[in-house]
TrEMBL record:
Main location: membrane
This protein's name: Zinc transporter
CDD domains: ZntB_u1 (cd12834)
Database matches in PANTHER family: CORA FAMILY METAL ION TRANSPORTER (EUROFUNG), ZINC TRANSPORT PROTEIN ZNTB
Species, as recorded: Variovorax ginsengisoli
Length: 339
């Protein structure tokens, strides 16, 4: 079967049957073959299937209800408004809500979507409404021949793939912050505050959505389903620790962006204060001539020096003197602040 981008008639984007006893390892299957295999007896050894659905397809959820035998918690999670990352146990199934970046991720806070996962002894279901990067990378790895030995290992590989993708995002954001910092040191601010704001909102949203819920994860690791092997539990614990490391890196990067924003704000405030000081000085220097011009412009009798032959130059001298005194006072008050 050639996997379809938008899904087949049931909304299945891709499906694989993993059987360690088979020579081909992973075999691509369609929705009809998956339904027949799931309806078959359960004595298939350690074989299991992975089905990846497009929830934008109208038939996807109906097919899952009819054939997948997933618990109600999975379908409730699809309709739940909470999209925070979590892994919970529902009897013999694992229900995971994982947030991932779009396939065409452009470092925008809106380029994040949710992936819903249901894991059972014979079945792994992943469902999304928009193309996501990590699950597509996992599908590519399966095509290359990387075969997980169990459903939990497949879940663990997906989480590790997502962690690797987050590391790439952190590196990309770090590179952009480095560029902004270099431009800041070179006094080329332009629109760097807006760029930093976008990057910070992206990191905040990623951290809020991707941080696994500690309580649910602790309960799962302490009381896993009976069909989960101890090695699988340890690998799942290791993948969650990788998430914690990436989230700590994100927190540190947020603090760095915050410091840069504060430095840029301080620089902008300093420029504004300098401009305001220049405007104040100009206003002070123009004050004497404005006052004298107003006084001598009144149409009343008794204006001094009106008949004096050197009256104009006397007035100019008075204005220049008052202006010099005002300038001396203004710059004398500014001097201690600069020193």
């Amino acid at each position: 079967m050639s996997p379809l981008y938008g899904g087949d008639e049931a909304g299945l984007i891709c499906g694989y049957l993993f059987d360690s006893s088979a020579t081909e390892g992973a075999r691509a299957i369609d929705s009809a073959e998956a339904a027949a295999w799931l309806a078959s007896p359960t004595d298939a050894g350690d074989a299991f299937v992975w089905l990846h659905f497009n929830l934008s397809h109208a038939q996807a959820e109906r097919w899952l209800v009819r054939h997948a035998e997933l618990p109600d918690a999975f379908f409730e999670a699809l309709k739940d408004g909470s999209h925070s990352t979590r892994i919970e146990r529902d009897e013999e199934h694992l229900i995971a809500v994982v947030n991932d970046v779009h396939f065409d991720f452009g470092f925008e806070p809106s380029d994040i979507a949710t992936l819903w996962i249901g894991v059972g002894p014979r079945l792994v279901v992943t469902a999304r409404a928009q193309p996501l990067r990590s699950v597509d990378a996992l599908r590519t790895a399966v095509r290359r021949g990387e075969l997980p030995r169990s459903p939990v290992v497949l879940l663990e590989q997906l989480m590790r793939t997502q962690a690797d993708g987050l590391v790439g995002i952190v590196r990309g954001v770090t590179a952009r912050v480095d560029e902004i910092e270099d431009e800041l040191l070179a006094q080329r601010l332009d629109h760097e505050r807006a760029r930093l704001g976008v990057l910070r909102r992206l990191l905040v949203r990623l951290q809020r959505l991707l941080a696994p819920e500690p309580a649910a994860l602790f309960r799962l690791l302490q009381h896993p389903p009976a069909w989960m092997a101890e090695d699988d539990v340890q690998e799942l614990r290791g993948s969650t620790e990788e998430f914690s490391v990436v989230l700590r890196d994100m927190q540190g990067l947020q603090e760095r962006i915050k410091l840069l924003q504060e430095e840029i704000a301080a620089s902008v405030n300093e420029d504004n204060n300098r401009s305001l000081f220049v405007l104040t000085i100009v206003t002070v220097l123009a004050l004497p001539i404005n006052i004298l011009a107003g006084l001598f412009g009144m149409n009343v009798g008794g204006i001094p020096l009106a008949e004096h032959k050197h009256g104009f130059w006397i007035v100019v001298s008075l204005v220049a003197g008052f202006t010099a005194v005002a300038a001396w006072i203004a710059f004398r008050k500014k001097g201690p602040k600069r020193s």
